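#struct-pred

JT: dropping the chains for the assembly here, can someone run the whole complex?
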Amino acid sequence: MTRHVGHQENTPLPQRCAGPSFEKGEESVAGQTPLFEAAGVAKSFGATKALVDASLSVSAGEIVALLGENGSGKSTLVKTLSGVLRPDRGTVRMDGRPLALRTPRAALRSGIVTVFQEILTAPDLSVADNLWLGHGSAFTTRSEQMRRRAEAERILSVLAPDPPPLEAETGELDLMQQQVCVIARGLLRRPRLLVLDEVTSTLDVTIRDRFFAELRRRCAQGAGALFISHRMDEVLTLAHRFVALRSGETVGTVDRREATAGRLVRLISGEQAAEQRTRAARTRPTTTAPVLRARRVVVRPGAEPVELTVRPGEIVGLAGLEGHGQDEFLRILAGLRPPTAGEVHLLDQDTASAVAVRSYRSAVRLGMAYVPRDRKAEGITDVLSSLDNFSLPTLRRDAVGGAVRPRRTRRRFTTLAGTVNLEPRPAIPAGRLSGGNQQKVILARWLATAPRVLLLNDPTRGVDLRTKHELYDLFEGLTADGTAIVMLSTEVEEHLHLMDRVLVFHSGSCVQELAHGETDREALIAAYFGQRQETLVQGGSQ
Amino acid sequence: MNQRYVHALRAPVARLWVMAAALVVANAVIAPDLLHGTRVTAMANLLAPLALAALAGVPSVLSGGGGLDLSVGPALGFVNVVTVAVLAEHGILSAWLGIPLCVLLGALVGAVNGLLVAYGRLQPIVATLGTFLVLSGLALVVLPQPRGGAPRWASFLADGSLGGYLPHILILPAGVLVLWAGLRRLGLVRLVTAVGSDQRAAYTSGVHVPVVRLGAYTLGGVFAGLAGIALTALTDSADPTAGKQYTLMAIAAVALGGNALSGGRGGMLGPLLGAVVLFLIQLLLSSAQVSSLWIQVVYGVILLVALCLNSAPRSGRRPRVTAAQGV
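RK: done, full complex below.
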């Protein structure tokens, strides 16, 4: 196994636009260029800078782990390397020669094979056809087909002890077998650089270990791999070198010999001075009767049950890396998704009675409001005016004898627009508003229902900084008036400063509950990766 | 009944065979002369344009992305008009030249549709509605009035039969099926299916999605060209308005054939049998002497019933979820 460790040790920061000077390291072979090299890659979507300056290199035989928290630009970088997105700036080289990765086809032809986080199969095709999808010419001779089938069969049996039959329709397979298929497809392409974006999430231990063994074998034969995983243990056993991204920039490289979970977590989270928004003045209610209770809610099969009790005036944060169950949990609370097991109750303070949430409609009726994450798909109707968007769920209130009084609606809108600090321009189509103002319209819509519990799904996503702070102030104001808030957030800062408690999810279970004051960046990021820091007391109420 | 037979009957194609057989029997009871040799040839001639139009509708639907070719009817009508009013007019009477030109014309129309959809990024239903209107209009420009004068090969296709029971016209649908089987073997059909099944999976696997779509629409155009030849054979003349009616029938046949209108699922045999069933229903209604005022209503109701019978949900299909969404 030719592991290229060592030559990077003294260079914690990435080399930008490295020419031949890159390999000045003492142990490197003279004239050796890395197998793959990306330098200064940048990509923006409108005003959002997903990648600012990402650089990394992979040598032949090397497995490099790409690390970063949500929104650090990992996925954007992967899409750039695979030809799905075109970078705004930056160079990508293979064997020192620059590449133009215009399409996935071009990337594959250059030997860069990507297995995406999303399981991309053509469900109507057979397993064999899926494995060879898009490979080479569509015209195949009989003997070529036989060879392809044999090779597909071989690679599947390498990965899985009980491989799916080649003739099976891929859409009929379970998720793990589909994942095996997309990994097998990647391996069949004889990659020179294999980019693996969270491909182990559905694999069981046996298949994962078989896959890792095969990956090591391929790398020993001269391939390179860029490996992304949310599991620290996997990363630590597999990778030779670690590259961390933060806010779209490469912030450091760590060699295997120096890597510890703690050091990596520090590298990912950064020691940046957190913005000072102390909320010490706020009283944190602990004595009032709870308003929302989740009882032994199991998010997905196999996950641990989650307990949550929320009191009026509390802000509870839901945290975790993308796809670890926090989103499902919030949807379960909102009645949008049935839990695998367990129940959600809304409690009435006066009568002390508990009513189970059985559907979204019942949740709304009981005084819950849910602000979705995907504004475009679930929240805002682009073509309708702000006023119409605002009044959708509460229009009935403005009806007198069955006829809606528009003036009443407008009056209510003006009042609530004031609450959320939105300039009331009722006639403008909501699609033309900025992201922040769209969010305010949706918030005003739900505040109009006077909710007792406000469920927020990453409400500050794609919202500018000033508006973010306005929203924080709004949330604090609401809780001061007794509204309970459960808020999913992908921003660590929000969990550190805004929340009274944070529930951290990993693999569908709540792995840690951190109370305000006990939460620090490192503990939070460590919990994201399933690493529990024992120095911390498990806080919160049951 | 044996479980296996029950299970087999769940397949759309199997149900269509049963429907078609029942309809043949019903027709034979009402009009016993159906099985005479000359009648069989006449039936085949009537059926051929519809069957080919249905087959022409298959590739675009299969390629997904809301794929649909509304222009199938006018395209075959336009080929019919051009055969008589342009080719025959200019003395191109040879089958060896005329038939390839018809196919080429169909391919051209299909390619225009494909370019609009794959590269112009237009919604297929709108793009092909546009070509529907253009071709309908062009047919009237080229030939304002219906008229005779079809080349001799048209009547050869229509009149002759091998051994009295195998009408010559069947060469055309048989040719389509052979061509399709060949493309399947070459792996091209698989590419169209892949693109229709999940275009992002296909794209990220290196499939050139627009080229595949363009190819699918062009292939549909080729089949529409053959349908135009069948229409010329049937009428032995040209009618600028005859083609349009085939569009909706073709789409109905594709749906009845069990092909998913969302793409990625289905073959050629289903729509072909779907066309046969549609044709037999029409035939039954006219030989049963249903009032011409009611015939449309009854036809529509029977079509709806047939579609319902044939769209029972497939069992055992798991919903698709991504890893990020969890199970």
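JT: nice. Residues 1-31, 272-281, 534-542 of chain A have pLDDT under 50 and may be disordered. The first helix of chain A runs from residue 74 to 81.
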